[in-house]
Every structure is written in structure tokens, then in C-alpha cells.
Amino acid sequence: QVRLVESGGGLVQPGGSLRLSCAASGNIFSINTMGWYRQAPGKQRELVAAISSSASTNYADSVKGRFTISRDNAANTVSLQMNSLKPEDTAVYYCNADRFPGWGIGDYWGQGTQVTVSS
Predict the structure, then answer these.
(1) What is the C-alpha to C-alpha distance for residues 39 and 49, in angstroms, rounded to an integer?
(2) How many Å apart are CA 35 and CA 51, to the nearest integer?
(3) Are 40 and 91 in contact, with CB atoms under 8 Å apart?
(4) Which of 8, 75, 109, 112 meets the CB 3.0–4.6 Å disulfide criterion with 20?
(5) Rg of the chain's alpha carbons, rounded to an integer?
């Protein structure tokens, strides 16, 4: 089993920045790809960004150029730097870990952290 714990959400004004972090524990050697997903009220959960064990990245078109995903394999953490935030970025953000390579959805989820972009 893998446990994921997110931190760093909050309220920010449009144009502002936030940094989300996710710490993994447990059977971390089984983890391959890690990623961030988000779910806004009334909408489906969607991929924001993902990063492979070799640091290849995949971003949703809506966040390209604004968000950056990074990973520290030694510390078992994955982070999401979010810049130029927009009201439409408001959502609960979830950390995800996958045992398999590629850009599929993994089995393991964090509890989620709320990001609200509002003036």
C-alpha cells in the first residue's frame, strides 16, 4: 500500500501562485508515475500534470506554461508549482500514484487539498 498526503492548498487572488506538495509513504518502491488531478464542483476529475520516474512530464493544455510538476525521488515527494492562477483553476487537487509507467490513472490517491482562486 501507498499513502499520499497533500499540502499547500489555500485561497489566492487571480494571478497569484501556490505550491502543492505530496508526500508518499509505505510501499514507495512500487510507484512509477505520479501526478496531480483536480475536480471542480459539478465536473469530472481531470488530469492536471503527471511525471514519470524518469522525470518525463505530461500537462493538461489548460495549465501548460503556468504550472510545473517536479519530483524528488529521494524524498518521495511530488510538487506542483502553480503560477498565474485563474478562477477556473479553483478545485480540489488530488495527488495520484501509479504502479505502472505511462499516463494512466494510478490506484493510489491522497485526500485532496482545496485551491480557491478568487478576488
Answers:
(1) 13
(2) 6
(3) yes
(4) 8
(5) 13
pLDDT of the chain, 119 residues: tens digit per residue: 899 999 999 999 999 999 999 999 998 888 899 999 999 999 999 999 999 999 999 999 999 999 999 999 899 999 999 999 999 999 999 999 999 888 888 899 999 999 999 99
The count of C-alpha atoms lying within 13 angstroms of the C-alpha of 87, restricted to the half-sphere facing its C-beta, is 2
